[in-house]
Structures are given as C-alpha cells and as structure tokens.
Amino acid sequence: MKLIKTEDAVGHVLCHDMTQIIKGVTKDAIFRKGHVVTEADIPVLLSIGKDHLYVWEKEEGMIHENDGAEILCSICKGDHIERGNVKEGKIDLFAECDGLFKVNIELLNKINYLGEMMIATRNGNFPVKRGDKLAGTRIIPLIIEEEKMENAKAIVGDEKILEVKPFIHKKVGIVTTGNEVFYGRIEDQFTPVILNKLKEYSTELVEHVILNDDHEKITEAIVNLINKGADFVICTGGMSVDPDDKTPLAIKNTGAEIITYGAPVLPGAMFLLSYFNGDIPVVGLPGCVMYSKRTIFDLMLPRLMAGERITYEEISKLGHGGLCLSCDICTFPNCGFGKGM
C-alpha cells in the first residue's frame, strides 16, 4: 500500500475502514476497506480529517477482492440461481425458483482448498424455496493473485458448482396393498400420509388402487397406472420379508429396474427404488413412512420430484447422517437427518 493525498485518490482502493464520528448521531465506518474512491467521496473524506489516505498500490498480476469475487461467483452460479451485489469481496447466491438444491461437493472442496477464497453452502439434495439463501462466497484478502483465480476457473471448467433443479409436475399413481386393508379389517391410514407429503409439490393423482396380497394383481395395477399416464408410482404395504409380503416381487415382475431394496436409513431400511422404462420411478414404501414423521421417503421425494435418477451408490452413502433421532419437536430439514449425503 502507499500514502497519497486525498484529492489524488479517485479510482484508488482504500486499505482501511474510514470512520465518521458525529456526536450524538453516528460513529461508524462511512467507507469500508476495499472501497473504490469516487469524486463525490473526496469532500466527505476531507470532512472527517483525512488529508492523506493509504490506498492499494496496484501490482501486476494482482486483482481487487471485488473482481476476484465476480470470478468466484461465476464458477458457482448455475441454473436457476440469482446473485446479490458484490461488497467487500463478498457475493451471496439465492434460489431463483422452488426446486432441489444441488452442490458439486468435489469441486466445492477443490476451490476451498486453494485458500484465500471461500464458498459456504447449505446442504445439497434438499428442497429450497424461491429467495432462499443458498451460499455465501468471499475473497479473503483485499487483493488476490489473478493466477489463483484463473486456476479456480480451470478447475471448474464448463461446470458450475451450484444449481437449483426446478420441481417437475408429476402424475402419481398409488397402490395400497394388504389383505387387512383390502378386506376392510383396518382403515387405510397410509395413503393420507402420502397425499399430505405430495401436497408440497406439483402433483395430480391418476388413481388410487387398493389390492390384497396377490402379487400378480399388484404387478398388473402398477402397469395399468403407468398406461393411464402415471409418471410416478408409489406402493405401500407388503414391504417386509414375511412370506405374504409380495410388493417387492410385484414391482420386480413389472420389468422395472430395481435400484435397491434396502437403504442404510432409519426409519426406512426396507425402502425399494426402481425405474420403469428407465425414467418412471416405482417405489415401495415401508410401514414406518405411515407412522414416523420423517423417513427415507422425505430424503428421496425431493430428488424424485426434480426428475433425478438416483443411483445405488448414492443410496449406499446415506448411512452417515441416516439416523433420524425422532425428536419430540421435529425441526427437519434443519437438523442432521440426511445431511451426510
């Protein structure tokens, strides 16, 4: 940095905060470190007794924090994300629409490892609302090597670290299974829970079918729902390993690709995920979804509503953070459940 006359400071960058004190009115920084001095600032600076200023002495190959922040923002900001204004090397990012927030964790870690810059995000693979704050970015020093920022750009390449995937309107078919429900021995308490969770998204019910434990009829019902336009089929009941629990067999016999029957999540270990014709999810929900407030279904549903094809590898990693503590007062998703993804 160098010391110059205030009158000569237009276009230069302040190296320190400038505090204005007016008795009984204010005592605060009127200009922050990193502020670029304008012509209109000169009288104000003189009025607070600043005849000379320490300013950033531009060096070849170094760039101002705000310029670095713009680069950092550009490598973060993917589809359906809005940005805030740049200030003191910081830019915040916000959701442009309701959707599923996605974070490329590998790229995020690589950029943060470079040092002198940072990106802090909320957890990915969770739903966000329009206007929600997604991430904060900052260049740490007042000036940063241009080469370091170019290195960050090269690491990310044509990808983006963050994006929001809008939720897709889904036509849903529900198949409720179980002799006890079909023959009226007990009331169906499962379907209302499913419908209540679907209300959070744009969905329409194609049809709700109640069947006994006949796996051939269940298979036929799933296929019929898809033929009627369902692009998401949810099956409830018959998901344990008891001999008369036939739902997994019925789903398999549709020809759907079984991604997993089982997940390292509690509640929800007996969850089944499959895809019919490659892109229509057919899921089997364990009984816990009916009586537990939050389960595997709450982790999977946002991703399925965003049209994602979830892999077995992703599900196998759910164990870290996959234990719901069933708190007396549920704060999900503002808790640890599912945060190990």
TrEMBL record:
It catalyses: adenylyl-molybdopterin + molybdate = Mo-molybdopterin + AMP + H(+). GO terms for molecular function: metal ion binding; molybdopterin molybdotransferase activity. It is an enzyme of class 2 (transferase). Its EC number is 2.10.1.1. Keywords: Magnesium, Metal-binding, Molybdenum, Molybdenum cofactor biosynthesis, Transferase. The keyword Nucleotide-binding does not apply. Pathway: Cofactor biosynthesis; molybdopterin biosynthesis. Its cofactor is Mg(2+). Residues 173-306 form the MoaB/Mog domain. Gene3D superfamilies: MoaB/Mog-like domain (3.40.980.10). One of its GO terms (cellular component) is cytosol. InterPro entries: MoaB/Mog-like_dom_sf (IPR036425), MoaB/Mog_dom (IPR001453), MoeA-like (IPR038987). GO terms for biological process: Mo-molybdopterin cofactor biosynthetic process. The keyword Cell membrane does not apply. Belongs to the MoeA family. Catalyzes the insertion of molybdate into adenylated molybdopterin with the concomitant release of AMP. This is Molybdopterin molybdenumtransferase. It comes from Lachnoclostridium phytofermentans (strain ATCC 700394 / DSM 18823 / ISDg) (Clostridium phytofermentans). The lineage of its organism: Bacteria, Bacillati, Bacillota, Clostridia, Lachnospirales.
